[in-house]
Amino acid sequence: MKQQAVPVKQRKQRTRLQETWRRFIKNKWALSGMALLLFLALTAIGAGFVAPEGIDDQQLTRRFSPPSRENLMGTDHLGRDMLSRIIHGSRLSLSIGFITTTIGLLVGGTLGAIAGYYGGREDQIIMRFMDVILAIPGFIFAVALVTALGPNLTNLMIAVGVNSIPYFARIIRSSVMSVKENEYIEAARAIGSSDAWIITKHVVPNSFAPILVQATLYIGDTIIIAAGLSFLGLGAQPPLPEWGAMLSGGRQYLRDAWWMATFPGIAIMITVLAFNLVGDGLRDALDPRLKR
Amino acid sequence: MLRYIFKRLFVLIPVLIGATFIVFAIMHLTPGDPAALMLPQDATRAEIEAMRENLGLNDPFFVQYGNFLFGIFRGDLGDSFRTGQPVFDIIMTRLPATMQLAAASLVVAVIIGLIAGIVAAIKQYTFWDGGAMFSALLGVSMPNFWLGLMLILVFSVFWSNNYGYTLLPASGYGTIRHIIMPAIVLGTAHAAFITRITRSSMLEVLRQDYVRTARAKGLNEWIVVFSHALRNALMPVVTIVGLRFGVLLGGSVVTERIFAWPGIGRLLIDSVRAQDYNMVQGIILTYAIIFSIVTLLVDLLYTLIDPRVRTQYR
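YS: structure for the whole thing
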């Protein structure tokens, strides 16, 4: 039998990051999520230029105008342009999402890393404390915190951020525990690196992938939780154009002005959808085994 | 098996006591003097001081906490600042409505989620799969309070006539028609999660050898899917239902508020607004207890679904 030599295709050497990025941009859902997120971020940054009007430009002569060419999303009970308020509100919702997740990541991450790296008594103390917080349903815990701190935007972010601490502590603990068994950690320890150095230089970067995925997905959750608290009157207060607070205002006029409750909700949904698409895309790109 | 239950209960108790401490400490931080809140506006300083002494508010923090904790074991959560009635009694009259809503929404979520997930898995990469997955994505991204308002808009505002007829009532309690919208609102996000997890779990199981064997021996596809594959795919689904039950309870607060549902969620927000902190404290603890019991029940459910788990704890 004649055997033909099959030419071996020279595979280009790619770094893990390039490989991940290549998989990510091949996924059209993830890519559209990314585009959506970029669009939202640019709108939020340039809200002052993009929005036709300010957040509190009242014109009582045009109260409750339905969507029209002048006011694409109608006007509210004070004659303010809904579209402008929603555009300005994107700043609030995106900041809430990022700030609360950052609080959770920093505090929860530090606690989780300590618990996972040292194990033993540190682990027991930290994780039992997290279990206690997790025994109270998250949203209810946030309601309690906002009640104690007082309802405003800053306290809302603190409450939702604190609420996410146990969640991130758990995720980071488990990824740190799996990373620390690697030989390069032992090698680092053998050459006399300090624990703090090993954790920040070796353990955290290597457990970064699952954390990034969870953080992206969690931003969407925090936006919904924060909007829910504002909807109940426990978060951002009027006249701030926070989407949850706007929905709450629209609820009173549901019968006469459907647009007041409809558009802020669509804005929340699109924003959360964008984060979910990117988060799912990242997960599939970082761990292609999961995608079938 | 019984040993396992006792072991789990034993772990649960310190966690719940810890939760009472956190809730008590947070409520202790809350601004405002409960004694002043309970008395009429024109009460003198001496009257307020007498009330403080009477309520034990002048005791050190840990003494107050100790009294609170012992009170819980006697079923005494203090009195409502607003009505003066025992908090425990008020919560007990409101609890059934919340449990009905939670149960109904769980039924909605499990039925929709399982069907959509199974269909998506057996028709992978078809229109049905894409549609189910896209709906699930929308479901997890949609705030439930917005969905609630939209349903009211469609079924109670647009779908109504001038004589007060509405297809579904926007508020109230008591009949099946009242619970339909709240249950859908509260169940949607969970249905979406269950769809996703059922699909991936089913896809995994459908590739197993025993499924191929079942098909090879000529079994009906329905039997293969439901009795061979589904049962084995159910574990992750049960896990997600248990884990997300806390989110469901949290969502019930908003849902009850939208539909004026007379449960403890609406009572919580009303009490927060009225600064009735004894009530708030009691309700939060009730939620924590329900959540912990459900988590325990889910763990016990594992042993029913999977005989391998059962033998571990013999």
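YS: worth flagging: The two ends of chain B are 6 Å apart (CA to CA).
IM: good catch. Also The domain at 97-263+292-313 of chain B is CATH 1.10.3720.10 (MetI-like fold).
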